[in-house]
Amino acid sequence: MMKFSKSNSWTSEIEKVETGAEVESENTSLQEVEAVNEQKTLLYIDFRMLPLLALIYAFSLIDRINLGSARVAGMGPALQLQIGERYSIATCLYFIPYILLQIPGNALLRMTGVRNWITFIVIGWGAVQLGMGFVKHWGLLTLCRVLLGVFEAGFFPAMVFIISTWYKRHEVQKRLAAFYLMSITISGFSPILAYALSLLNGRRNIAGWSWIFIIEGAFTMFLGVLGFFLIPDFPDRNTFLSKAQTAFVLKRVEEDRGDSRPDDITVRKIFHHLGDWTLWVYGVMFACSTLPAYMLAFFIPIILKGMNYSTTASLLLSAPPYGPAFLSAMIFAWLSDKTKHRSGFIAIQACITLVGCCMTAFAKAGPTRYAGTFLINAGSAGCIPGVLALGANNVVSHSKRSVQTAITIAWGGIGGILASTVFREKDSPNYVPGLWVTIGAQILMICLAGITCLHFRRMNRLSREGRLSAPLEGKDGFFYTT
């Protein structure tokens, strides 16, 4: 059977600690591991890992969504994107390679090493982004968008995969939320940054919208180089913790879900994991949660301009809806981790998104419609880490976690395709049909959250009663998070 990863040459730190053996050249005893300060170690991991990953992902989002800002800044007339569905095609085709390359990207992650893989793809998409500043035809713009999808496909699932391996199951949503929300908060300033860069219009005979792509692409490439030196690896391969701290982290994960030791990713395992229907449900839920996020990213400057705001106001007013979303989503993430419950909080935030969509679609007053975008963003920003945490909590083994994160985030790309296609040019500037689809997606997500919650509760009950032929997820003492 073909394997995608190297065989594991590392010896279990946990086994060494439990027997009082030496860890490599250091005498790391069980007493030393137990003496590790848990809070200080976790805080150090948080600050060492999350801000850098969030900054790089923020520019992944900026590079993915700045098409709307560039269009308002003059790219539309320059490339004649107003003809037919050219703009929707350019936004949509990005997601085809983005979806198809999720699983291969995660399969290659351990084989190539986190640092090498992430550096390669970040510099790759930065170069494509920079090149978009020099296109003269909408077809070349579309080709660049496809290449952008090729390189960005491996980044987000890799980040979710890596982060979920460092923490216990009911610590992970706060971290995923912090990572994601720092990213979208930074990327929320994309319209303001785009406006500032557009003021370079005419410098070196380059249009303002071109400067948006050139400067943002160059900075992304710089982050790729920086990441080569600073991006953290999986816990068993990390180099920034002491041996005692590493053994402590692995011990916590082993006690929580029993997958601190990575298993090889094989084709047989991939197809076996693909047969678990719950992985596909997480994906559909993630698509429903990303649809409103992509809708705002691609179309909010255009929607605001349709409310008779000027070009400058449309770009500047696109940023504030991202602010309150950070606070709202972090509160829900904290509550979810504390109560060890996911589905109910996902449903509540989907309702918030639904209300915001109704306000933006059907209210008559411009300020009320604009207020709706705050609710849309708050709800969707909280649902995204919520769905990711639900999926991460209910799988065991690195191979299944790799497949689960890839499937989930690939479906997020389908949410992007929906946002690109249901918000049609002929429905401008209100895009009511697209908002109806977004409303329907939130209703579907609420239903799926209820179905998975009931299913997991039933499986937990059957396991406690000893009525199952095997432990849940093949791990004794494991119970699903509802």
Automatic annotation (TrEMBL):
Which taxonomic lineage does the organism of this UniProt entry have?
A: Eukaryota, Fungi, Dikarya, Basidiomycota, Agaricomycotina
Cellular component terms, GO, for this chain's entry?
membrane
Which N-terminal stretch is annotated as signal sequence? none
Q: What is this protein called?
A: Major facilitator superfamily (MFS) profile domain-containing protein
Give the principal location in a single coarse category: membrane
**Subcellular location as annotated:** Membrane
Q: Which GO terms describe its molecular function?
A: transmembrane transporter activity
Membrane-spanning parts: 49-67, 87-109, 116-135, 147-167, 179-197, 209-231, 279-303, 315-335, 344-363, 369-391, 403-423, 435-456
The record's Gene3D superfamilies line, in alphabetical order, gives: MFS general substrate transporter like domains (1.20.1250.20)
**Pfam families given in the database record:** MFS_1
> SUPFAM superfamilies this protein is in?
MFS general substrate transporter (SSF103473)
Topology versus the membrane: Multi-pass membrane protein
The protein's UniProt keywords, in alphabetical order, are: Membrane, Transmembrane, Transmembrane helix, Transport
